[in-house]
Structures are given as C-alpha cells and as structure tokens.
C-alpha cells in the first residue's frame, strides 16, 4: 500500500511539473505573439521552479544537470542573440525549459524548436513573397515542449 501511495505521489509530481512547463511555454508563446516579448516574470520563476523540481527528484545530480543544460543553452544561443536573431527572453525561456527536463530530453526539445522555427520561417518566406516577417521563437519552443510532453519525440 505504501509503495502504491509513493508511486502515485511521484506520478502526481511529474504531472504537476509537466503542467507547469506546458503553461510556462504557452504563456511565453502568447506574450511573444501579442507583445513581441518573453517576460522575465514568467521565465525566471519557471527556471526557479524547474530547478527546485529537479533537485527534489534527483538531488545534486539534478542540479548539476540543470547547470549544464543552462550553460549549454546560453553558450550555443549567445551568438544568435548578439547577431539579433534571438531575443534574451528566448534564451531565458529555453534555459527555464531545460530545468524541467533530463538533459537528453532537453536536447531533443532544443533541436525540435529549431526545426519547427526553421519550418515556420520557410513557410513565412514562401507565402509572404519577400515581405519581412519575424518568427516569434517562443512559439516553436512551446510547440516543441508540447510535442515532447505528448511523447511524440
């Protein structure tokens, strides 16, 4: 009986973690579309909550994973930020997403966001015939997160 209760508590915690991640990604996508910004008021608490979840489930190893994933995110995306291709909010969103996932899952989600963003950019280019448009990168990030949570990759 005790094992069943512990299993249910762990499943509930995982479900809650996934719900928080999905909500954070969706809110950031919506604010990026409506305001052109990803707000710190969403990403910073998201990073903190994700880190707490990771530490509570995996201890010091989980914290090290969050640090490595965040460092990877900033290191890889900083040149895109400097070139004007990504905003700082996009980088912080991906760093917050990394805190909710195991490093391998995050890497799939990270790459998925870029593939979705590339496809969106190509579609915009194809259908707008030279007009200048911006891909709001929080949208592909949210799509990638939702695909991951749906276990589609």
Could you give the distance between the termini?
34 Å
Strand-residue fraction?
A: under 5%
Q: Determine the mean pLDDT.
A: 90
Instruction: State the order of secondary-structure elements, H for helix, E for strand.
Output: HHHHH
In short:
It is globular, with a radius of gyration of 16 Å.
Walk me through what this model shows.
There is one protein chain. The chain has 153 residues and is an all-alpha fold. Helices cover 83% and strands 0% of the residues. The protein has five helices and no strands. The longest helix has 43 residues, at 40-82. 33% of the residues are buried.
Features:
153 residues, mainly alpha, 83% helix, 0% strand, disordered N terminus
Topology (SSEs and partners):
Elements: H1 2-35, H2 40-82, H3 88-99, H4 103-128, H5 138-149
């Amino acid at each position: 009986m005790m094992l069943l209760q512990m299993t249910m508590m762990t499943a509930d915690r995982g479900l809650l973690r996934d719900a928080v991640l999905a909500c954070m990604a969706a809110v950031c996508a919506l604010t990026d579309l409506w305001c052109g910004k990803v707000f710190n008021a969403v990403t910073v608490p998201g990073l903190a909550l994700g880190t707490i979840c990771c530490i509570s489930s995996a201890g010091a190893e989980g914290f090290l994973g969050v640090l490595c994933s965040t460092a990877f995110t900033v290191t890889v995306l900083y040149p895109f930020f400097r070139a004007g291709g990504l905003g700082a909010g996009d980088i912080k969103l991906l760093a917050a997403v990394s805190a909710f996932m195991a490093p391998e899952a995050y890497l799939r989600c990270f790459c998925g966001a870029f593939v979705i963003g590339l496809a969106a950019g190509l579609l915009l280019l194809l259908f707008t015939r030279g007009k200048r448009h911006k891909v709001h990168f929080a949208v592909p990030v949210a799509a990638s997160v939702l695909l991951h949570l749906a276990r589609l990759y």
